[in-house]
User: Fold this.
Amino acid sequence: MSETPMHPQQPPVPTGPTQPLPPAGTPAPTSAWTQPLPPVPGQNGATGTGRPGGVPMPWLIGGAVAFVAAVVIGVVVATSGDDGTTAAPGNPAGIPGGPGAARPEPGGKAYTKVPEGCDLLKPATVARLVPGGECTPSPVDNATLSTMITKMPHWTTRMGSGGPALNLRVDLVVSPHAKGLYDMKKKSALTALKDMRTNTGRALDGFGQEATVVHHVDKAPFDSAQAEVLVHEGNAALSVQFDYNPKETGTTQQQAEESVIAAAREVLGALS
Assistant:
């Protein structure tokens, strides 16, 4: 009787520590990069996919706000050299939103009181610029740094309203480093996306310590536009942006610029 040849036993394959499998039915994790883009209203009110250069959608605005907040915080820390808890006269504990956030710059006003973001503009102003617009406060409003107060609300026409897509944004920072923030935002406004749009700016006299109005027009084949005013007054750096489509609204560049300038004056008038 022949013997069955024996094969040498293979050594076991080494394995590392394993993670327990999630329970059945657990949804897979998602990220901002895997989320589908939300539907947006087209020009006739129907749901569509939006177009480049149009009014920013909420998911985009949220990302932009987070980016702005990171930049603002970075500038404040870099220019102050501290962790944002520096105390100031009258605010020995460095209380957020207290006088430590409103140390004056030479020659300008020192604001200490700022309304809630959605209260920076009067309802009549919002109704004129963004009819039926709803206010969304920024998640970075009232940042915890004692050297800074932020208010970044935006008003957007309701989706499916059938009217033109409009968006109005206010970015307000009260900080001892307002001058640096103004210079940074002014440079960005005049140069950003210059391959996709035309940016034209001019100095605005008689408004704050310094102010600039900038108009952006998307290059063909897109036709959206934006009027923006930037203001530096004491310890406040402010910008107001109005997104619109000239063909849909019939709004001229002059009208758009006058509107954001009036809105910016109203915001500064709400501070004390």
